[in-house]
Design brief:
alpha+beta, 2 domains, Jelly Rolls, seven-stranded antiparallel beta sheet, Polysacc_lyase, globular, about 30% strand, signal
């Protein structure tokens, strides 16, 4: 088993502020390095060091139990156990940064009702929702990017990821300010989730006519009727939505986003449930409408288990306004669990983290077992 050494911080100065571009941690010391990570959003009881790790002696695990609470939840009842890169490691906002790490999920993720589960996120200046997020709703691993308050799935472990993207394209043409449309999409999600995850329950409580309509071909009269009943102008959404129904908060995907998604031929993400998944990200923030900071298209590239999955270009993150007076540093990276409260134990194992300005400077992860 190869032991991965902890790389030193590579420092530089920007406007009198010490910044760091390079950071690495193998967690073999079985202690959280306070010079690399902050712990404001995780308790001591939520941290453990399972042995062995992905490559070395140990990994770090963030665990949430049903009785756990969370900080910075806003108006919702959330549970949180996250570690965050320390501020001295944040890049200048707009710089190209590479990240690599391994992770796996251990525990329970219900096939329904587990909305909303974030298992890794990057946030830049002005971001409310993360500009990039790893999510694990209803046991499906997927990755999103954000254009201000509009969200897009860019990769997923769904059975048919192409269908997920097809449904999303239709959602992007709908009016997010039309409450009937929003309610129609939410109702469609409930119906599809029931049919897919609880078929016996659906057969008992949904009429045969409704079940037939949901599975009818495009253009069929019953398909058009149910779309009209739900207030959905495009009945073709019903053909693809079953591969989108796992996504939390589908209303956040309504409306146009200036995001281009270029998927590879083999673009299905691996399932991290019980198995190590190796992720590599290239992130270069930007927006064409920024008044300060990088005024160009943002870029994100993602690899999983050594395979290129997707390239994303466009307006990524929040628009930066002159009057905001935001500090142009980041994005910062957080790993762990952030979810709405559910009665499940869940543990995320995290290991072999590396952050660098070039891919060649990332710490190499040992070969898969």
């Amino acid at each position: 088993m190869m032991k991965i050494l902890i790389a030193p911080l590579a420092l530089y100065t920007l406007a009198g502020t010490v910044m760091a571009q390079t950071l690495a941690d193998s967690f073999d010391g079985k202690a959280l390095d306070q010079e690399k990570w902050t712990t404001q959003q995780i308790s001591t009881a939520q941290v453990s060091y399972p042995e062995p790790g992905r490559c070395g002696a140990a990994a770090i695990a963030a665990t949430v139990k049903p009785s756990d609470g969370g900080t910075a939840c806003g108006d919702e009842d959330c549970q949180r156990a996250e570690i965050r890169t320390i501020k001295t490691s944040w890049p200048k906002f707009g710089d190209e940064v590479w990240y690599s790490f391994s992770f796996r999920a251990e525990g329970q993720v219900a096939p329904t009702g587990s909305h909303r589960l974030v298992i890794g996120q990057w946030k830049g200046p002005g971001d409310d929702s993360p500009m990039i997020a790893q999510r694990f709703d209803d046991g499906v691993f997927y990755i999103t990017v954000q254009d201000n308050d509009i969200r897009r799935v860019v990769a997923s472990a769904a059975e048919k990821p192409g269908e997920t993207l097809a449904a999303q394209e239709i959602l992007g043409k709908l009016d997010r300010d039309d409450q009937q449309t929003v309610q129609g999409v939410q109702s469609l999600q409930s119906l599809e989730t029931m049919l897919k995850r609880q078929p016996d329950f659906a057969k008992q409580f949904l009429s045969p006519e409704l079940q037939k309509a949901l599975r009818a071909s495009d253009g069929a009269p019953e398909r058009r009727r149910i779309a009209e009943t739900l207030g959905l102008a495009d009945s073709s959404l019903l053909s693809h939505f079953r591969e989108f129904a796992f996504v939390a908060e589908p209303e956040k995907y309504l409306g146009p986003a200036a995001i281009e998604i270029i998927s590879e031929a083999e673009n299905r993400l691996p399932n991290p449930g019980g198995k190590w998944v190796e992720m590599v990200y290239r992130i270069k923030p930007g927006r064409m409408d920024n008044e300060i900071g990088p005024r160009r298209k943002g870029e994100v590239e993602i690899w999983a288990n050594g395979k290129k999955i997707v390239t994303v270009r466009g307006n990524i993150g929040a628009t930066l306004k002159k009057e905001s007076k935001l500090e142009l540093s980041g994005p910062y990276f957080k790993f762990g669990i952030y979810r709405k409260r559910v009665a499940e134990d869940l543990s995320l194992h995290f290991d072999e983290f590396s952050q660098a300005p070039k891919r060649s400077e990332l710490v190499k992860i040992c070969s898969a077992d």
